Amino acid sequence: MYEISYRRLTAVKITGASFLFILAGFLLMYALSDEGLGIFESIYYASGMVLSFWFFGPVFIRSVYLIFTNPTLLKLNEMYITARNGTQIFWKDIKKIELHQSSFSKIVQFVPPQYRVHLHDGQFLDLNTYNMLTNNELLHYHKLLQQAWNENKHKTLC
């Protein structure tokens, strides 16, 4: 069995960086209490505050959660992949494994890189990395997933 996991130090670093941006949002909120600001400065500070909370709030919450949980993202064996949430995906059911890099969702929230597993029935599953892997690790683990799939896709339960 092989495990794909992240380093807790990465989660701590991301938590610290996002906390600094949220703190900057609170400082902008405090600056709004100054009565000497004009209308355009108030709009500028308020938009900076909202954007700091919008983009870095979810990242902060998710990374704090990941500091205190099991760092394993995926488990691989010769029959199936086990996702972080316990879902088992058998190698024989997989049609293709892709790496989806970072993007934005419909509500302009940052979507971390993920492995998209296409199944033979036309569905797909996203295996989230929660932004805890470096680009080199993402590519390395993608190659490892592809290799494991190629080796095990014809095996069946006996």
In short:
The chain is of the alpha+beta class and 158 residues long.
Please explain how this structure is put together.
The protein has 158 residues and is an alpha+beta fold. Helices cover 45% and strands 24% of the residues. The chain has helices spanning 8-31, 39-67, 135-152; strands at 2-5, 72-76, 80-83, 88-90, 94-100, 103-104, 110-111, 114-119, 124-128. The strands form 3 sheets. A 4-stranded antiparallel beta sheet has the order 1-2-3-4, with helices on one face. Strands 5-8-9 form a 3-stranded antiparallel beta sheet, covered by helices on one side. The protein has a two-stranded antiparallel ribbon with strand order 6-7. Helix 1 (8-31) runs antiparallel to helix 2 (39-67). It is elongated, with a radius of gyration of 20 Å.
Task: Chart the SSEs and their pairings.
Layout: E1 2-5, H1 8-31, H2 39-67, E2 72-76, E3 80-83, E4 88-90, E5 94-100, E6 103-104, E7 110-111, E8 114-119, E9 124-128, H3 135-152
Antiparallel strand pairs: 1-2, 2-3, 3-4, 5-8, 6-7, 8-9
Helix pairs in contact: 1-2
